[in-house]
Amino acid sequence: MDIFVSIANSIADIAIILVNNRLASDSFLAATSFASIVLIISLHIRGYKLDWPKRLIKSVGANIAFLWGNLLFAPAVFVSADYVRHAYDAINLPHVDVNFWSSVPAWILVPFAVFCFDFANYWNHRLMHRSWLWPIHAIHHSDPELNAMTTYRVHFLEPLVMSISYILLLSWLGFPTDVMGVGAIFVTLHNMYVHINVDWNHGPFKYVIASPRMHQWHHADLPKAYGKNLANVFPIFDVAFGTYYVPGPCKEAFGVQGAPENDVVKLTLFPFAEWGRMVWRSVRPSQNAILVSEPDQLDTKKHRAVEPDASVANS
Description:
The protein contains 14 helices and no strands. It has helices at residues 2-24, 26-45, 54-69, 74-91, 106-128, 134-141, 158-170, 177-194, 212-219, 236-240, 264-282, 285-293, 295-301, 310-314. α5 (106-128) crosses α7 (158-170).
C-alpha cells in the first residue's frame, strides 16, 4: 500500500512541477494575453452579451481540456523524445557550433530560425496527413468550430512526432536556446491567430505569411482541400511543393466525420481505435480488395479515416 501512495505522491509532485512550469513560461503568458484580447474583441462585437453558440463553447472547453490534460502524458513524451535525442547524438553527425550564431543579430537570427522551424513543420505536418499518422493529427482537425484555442487541440502523441522531427531536422543547426524561445512565442501566437474564424487573407502578403483564410481551407471538410496548406507560417513552402490551395473565402464545414467532436476522452482513444480498424482491414482479403480498387471512394465516404497525402488529393 505504501508503494502506491509513494507513486501517487510522485505523480502529484510531477504534475505540480509541470503546471507551475507552464504557468511561468513566457509562451503561455503570451498565449493567455492573446486569447484574452480575442475574447474582449468578441465580447465587444457581440455587444458584451454572452450569447456564443453552444457548440463553440463546447469546442473551447474541449480545447482547454486538451491544453491541461496533455500534461498527464508530458513526462512519457519527454522521456521518449529524450531517448531519440540521445540516439541521434550518439551518431555524432556534424553540426553547427552554437557559438557560430553569436555574431548574427537577433533580428536576423530569430526569423531565420522560425523559417527553418516552419520548413521542418511543413514536412512533419505532411507526414501526419498520411494514413498511419493521420489518426493522431485527426484530433486537431476534429474541432467543428475553429477558434484561437484550437491550437491546443492536439493528441498527446502529436508533440512526440513533432519533437522527433525537430531532433532529426533541426538539431544540427545548433540554434541558441533563447532564440528558439523567442521563435516559439511567435509561432504559438501566429498559430492561435490563423485558427481565428475570420476571413482575412493578407492581400498582397498572402504568400508571405499564412492567413486565417488559408488555414481554414486546411481544416475544410472537402476532399480537394485534404493535405493542403501544410505550412504553419510561410505559405512559400506550400507554393513550392504544390500544396497551396486558397480558391477564395472558405464556406466549408470543419471537423472530421467519424471522430467525436468535443468528447476529450473519446478523442484521446480515437487514434488507437482507428489503428485497430486499419489493422483489421489489412488482414481481411475482401476489405483489401476495396482498399486497392477504390481508395478515393473509401476516403470520401469516411472523411479522412485514412487521409490521402497531397499527391493523392491533387489527382
